[in-house]
User: Fold this.
Amino acid sequence: GPLTAFRVAQEICGVDQVNALGFCVGGTIISSALAVAAARGEKPVASLTLLTTLLDFSDPGELGCFIDETSVVTRENTIGKGGLLHGKELSSVFSSLRANDLIWQYVVGNYLKGGKPMAFDLLYWNSDSTNLPGPFLAWYLRNMYLENNLRVPGKLAMCGVKADLGRVDMPVFILATREDHIVPWQSSYLGRALLGGETTFVLGASGHIAGVINPAAKNKRSHWINDSRTTNPDEWLAGATEVKGSWWPRWADWLKRFADGEVAARGRLGSKAHKPTEPAPGRYVKEKA
Assistant:
């Protein structure tokens, strides 16, 4: 898991701490892992970046339409003790959230009109499905989406310890996006109050993927900033300043606080103890779900 990844990165780079970044569910998992580390008295991370991440699931947005007690019990009884959720099923759930764009557009354009869809890198990435272990999915749906247990200090036991996000006290950069239909930005904002350290919140334009993957060189879109620590996301936005262009340079400047300067890229990957297993991107990426 993340704690092993942190340890390996520390050993390869010869550093005491790393700067961690989590995207969407990855951010939730890393935050949970750091709560476990804190309970053990460990601090493997100097800074944390959370991109479109939920820590408070009180309003999960449109995904909440698919999650209730009956549906979670069904998952627990079928794949909760073993098996997989097939990646194609997961992909169909997310496509149904934007059915006009991700389903019916292709039914009309391809099936009825006989056209071929245009190449679109973000949608290609979006369709790269991942199989999920059944026990993990069932546990995650119940404890995060259905019961919102992560926000309650000590409610969840993970890796043999009780997790408390309030003990995650390193500086955190949080990015949400205004049109995100998977992680509502207001819900992402609520995570600030659960963390124990200094938080910087930035709101980007566009949606869950396009709002994050916004190279600065293209000078597209904009983002909003506000130093206010209000617990109300709408109040935060009302007092925010819109800044033209990508959020990337702002994040890069923030991240420099936790580094000793730039270094040349390593000529070799890994180390004697942690040898590369195969050429990038690896079998996992190439295998079809």
